Amino acid sequence: MLCCMPGVAFVPALLVCWSSAAFIISYVMAVLAGHVEPFVPYISDTGTKPPESGVFGFMINISALLASITMYIRYLLIEKQNESSHFVRSSCNMFTLCVGLMGCTGMGIVATFQELAVPSVHDIGALVAFGSGVVYITLQSIISYKSCPRWNTYLVCHIRMAISVISCIAFIPMIVFASKISMTKIDWTPGEKDYTYHFMSAICEWTVAFGFICFFLTFIRDFQ
């Protein structure tokens, strides 16, 4: 089905499918191995211990690569559309691409430096990945509105902006609650110290992560 898509629509489609599989497979493996509690662990918790750590690292690195390719194609697409419409400055388009690629670099850091092995580097990578990702999709939503009605429908723009707003709202408490956790661990159980902070932060993290996936899903039609 992916190969039959016109244009380069298979790129964001593959990104969405691969990234979703990366999260789900590592989660299932970690839960079945008894390494994490099944009820809302951190995404990174599901890829900390072997064997799921190898699968998580490999698949997230591929996701970062696919995201980089998707963002670059999106950049080229906007540049081409902008030749006739002039709806956004080229410097703004380039800045948006750079922010997105920074987020992809953060993903690579998260996949390479595991949570328990090098927690400080891992946390910096996660902050860069999620922070840059939120800024990227917000800027892309604004650019989408500027390209209406010639290159995008208002419905698509509204969907993208809604995803961006939800991701932004979830990103802030994710950081706030995570900063209040006084220990680095993956085997959380209800009732222990800082569990509430962990639980709320983890919910927000999953919300932002799947917000990114849903956002890239809206690129499929554009890339056709």
TrEMBL record:
Superkingdom field: Eukaryota
Chain ranges of the CWH43-like N-terminal domain: 8-224
Subcellular location, principal: membrane
Pfam families tied to this protein: Frag1
InterPro entries reported in the protein's UniProt record: CWH43_N, DRAM/TMEM150_Autophagy_Mod
GO cellular component: endomembrane system; lysosome
Transmembrane segments: 54-73, 94-112, 124-143, 155-177, 197-220
Protein's name according to its UniProt entry: DRAM1 protein
Gene name of the encoded protein: Dram1
